[in-house]
Amino acid sequence: MATDALDRTTGTPDEEHHESKFQYPGIPTTCDGAEAVVWVETKISQGSGAFPITSSTTMGSGFNAAMMNGTPNMWGDQLVFVEPESEHSAATFCEGFAVAGGRVTNFTSGQGLVLMKEVLYTISGKRLPVVFNIGARALTSHSLNVHAGHDDVMSVADCGWGILFGRNAQEAGDLCLISRRAAEASVTPFLNVQDGFLTTHTVESVRLPEEEFMKEFIGKPEDKLMNLMDTDNPLMSGVVQNQDSYMKGKLAQRWYYDQVEPALEEAFEEFYRNTGRKYDFVDGYRCEDAEYILVGIGSYMETAQITIDYLRDEKGIKAGCLNIYCFRPFPSRQIVEALEHCKAFTVIERMDDPLSTTGNHLTREIKAAFCDAMTGQNGVEKIDRIPKIYHGAAGLGSRDVRPGDIIAIFDNMQTDAQDFFSVGIKHSTSLEIKEDPDLRPPGAFSMRGHSVGGFGSVTTNKVIATIGGQVFGKDVQAYPKYGSEKKGLPTTYYLTIADSHIFSHSELAYVDLVVLNDSNALISGNPLTGMVDGGAIVMQSPYSDPADVWKRVPPHHQRTIREKQLRLNFLDMVSIARDVASVADLEMRMQGIVLLGAFLKLTPFSQDAAMSDDEVYAGVEKALRKYFGKRGEQVVQDNLTCVKRGYSEMNEVPRDIINNGHP
Predict the structure, then answer these.
(1) N or C: which end of the chain has fewer CB within 10 A?
(2) Residue 663 has pLDDT above 60, yes or no
């Protein structure tokens, strides 16, 4: 099918296709972090109270959709979903549901999490083991931002909840389960956190936990939870207490919190024993002999991991990184043990608290842990020295954190430069990027698209990722970049397909294929930046004559196309969508799906998999049904027609026109 496949270096497939020794290795699929959480929560929970807020909205809407479709949980309970007037009220609903002995969840972000803070205290104080799933989002301080930040979670870190952070979609789903088991074992509520948009909306190759495993691992709600409103077993909860009683009750709760660490330890071990996926309070990568270590939380720690390999293997630097999975209970002992032998370490955080002169939340906690270690107090083994500690702000509001930024952080440690720094922006505190290597897996194929919100391009990117993962058996990563004002304004989307896990969570600087759903991008920016030699372009054009298409490409882009030997392809996605759409409101949105046909024609994946056209289109139809099936069969078939026309109607500007300006 891919008769015009791009030339590219082919990576070596993963040869570890042996049968897993673990009973529950997971169900292979492609999904984003929000979908992974919804998969878990709709199976194990009974209800949710949520006031959906970006970037957690898709989690709430996914749970609500399951309820509306009459889908029961694994024990046959019909799901309950209530959307009250605010996040504060949503948390209060969850409190009441849990008081009555129900297993309940919530999905929130940013200001929503902060608004419910008052209720978070009462939930933990009543020993209600709920799990709230967070799409961590920057708080509105100097301006509104709906993207990733950790200041929302840090603002509620004192509420008496356990807090786990995942780095990717796989971990978001897995830690949702682990959080629930630990919460109910210790009678302590948990926050299960993933980065807003960077994880909640990034489609990746994932193994979803099997229902049989979840039944065993979590257990039936009625067997695990207590109904505090049971009149046959009355108890006191939520009363007023004066000087004689309040402090006694508050300190008595420490008994429960002493159970959280062993409960988490047990949950981690049991999860690994069954699935083969290993989690811990912290996860060190190449730290054993490291002289310099990077410490952090969330998605950029996977980017750090692949950068560590580069620093070690290409630069000879003894580098390591330490990912923090668990922020509450804070793993002081484990962190000190991982870091005490290095020369220096740097803590990066997705927030900035300037009036704390000793650093942001994670930095302060780590410094306190080393203070205890120097004096041998609070259960931390005594040490003789503290490594040099640096700290910085990175990735606020989903600002890109690149391998080049991480290399600059290690340069900063080696030269003993700035105690505090920032990366990714131009500022007096910023570190300079001196190199930014391509750290994609060998043979990886990457695409970047330039579109307009409302054209359906972001959904198309998800469909392509689904096909790459579930039809061609590749590892995938697809994510969008847009603002809160998305519709009608520029949107960028990224996709990487490889034979092994894609660690880097950053905007693509090296791409094999650029898609111009919006040809205005040629005028307003430089969409060809980062294109590899011999790559391809697919652009929207209403013209059928290749010479007409070529002369409308700005001269500086023409030079790039000639110098890099790029292939320029074109088709009229707008016209195809207008012809095919049977529903008027889909005319604009179906422009994006035409691209899928062009993608199939330009890439080698169907050819490499030795799949016929019919086999490929069967997989395409299945993927389309996942995203558009709720609109009806006609819409699915219309989308499939768009794909087929995109495949057959794409044309290429001949090389002689590119080189000479005429046939």
Answers:
(1) C
(2) no
